[in-house]
Amino acid sequence: MTHTLIASAAALGLAYAGMALLCLALDRHHQQVWGREPSRRQRAAMQGGGALLLALALLPCVAAWSATVGVVLWLGFLSAGVLPLVFLLPYAPRATAWSALLLAPAALGGLMWLP
User: Fold this and answer.
1) Which of 1, 83, 94, 104 shows a CA-CA span of 20 to 30 A to 17?
2) TM segments (predicted)?
């Protein structure tokens, strides 16, 4: 696999997982998945984790491309990461939660391959 392909997959995976955590921090979506509203601590943890994953998605973009192009591609990966959530969350909310939980460590592992 090429360097840019690994960076693209890692950025897209981190963007998806981060957006999924931010979505699941909302009362409505949390209720859909777990059948109850989140506590303040859970909501804060999901919001912080989602923001951290979105920020980490910038690293592979800047590592594979320059800073200026990397930031633009990062914004594109954020948009592409939320698109599956638009279709998956209303129809399969538990699958959304599980896919985000499985995809986040895989995407973080992809960061190890970057220089």
Assistant:
1) 1
2) 6-26, 46-65, 71-89, 96-114
The pLDDT tens digits for 29-62 are 999 888 899 999 999 999 999 999 999 999 999 9
CB burial readout 47-77, b (16+ within 10 A) else e: bebbeebbebbbbbbbbbbeeeebeebbeeb
Residue 90 above 90 pLDDT? no
Flag whether pLDDT at 22 surpasses 90.
yes
Other Cβ atoms less than 10 A from the Cβ of 115: the count is 5
Q: How far apart are CA 67 and CA 85, in angstroms?
A: 27
Query: What are the distances in angstroms from CA 65 to CA 6, 54, 61?
Result: 12, 17, 6
CA angle 61, 111, 64 (to 5 degrees): 30
Count of CA atoms in the C-beta half-sphere (13 A) of 108: 13
